[in-house]
Structure to design on (71 residues):
């Protein structure tokens, strides 16, 4: 996975404000790590796990909302 491609998954501007408030922290941390850590397979694994964590926390916020209308 190219770094540029992976970083697009950390974009948050398209999200509603309450989800942006969670997601932007992961974006900022991903940018920081990309600047400080060598781009090797361990870095890419860490970036994937950070993305998984972001997705989990955003979904956790959605669980408090009524999302049953999409079922």
């Amino acid at each position: 996975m190219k770094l540029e491609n992976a970083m697009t998954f950390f974009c948050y501007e398209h999200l509603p404000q309450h989800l942006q408030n969670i997601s932007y922290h992961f974006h900022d941390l991903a940018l920081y790590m990309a600047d400080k850590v060598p781009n090797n397979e361990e870095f890419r694994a860490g970036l994937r796990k950070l993305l998984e964590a972001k997705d989990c926390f955003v979904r956790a916020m959605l669980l408090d909302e009524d999302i049953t209308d999409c079922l």
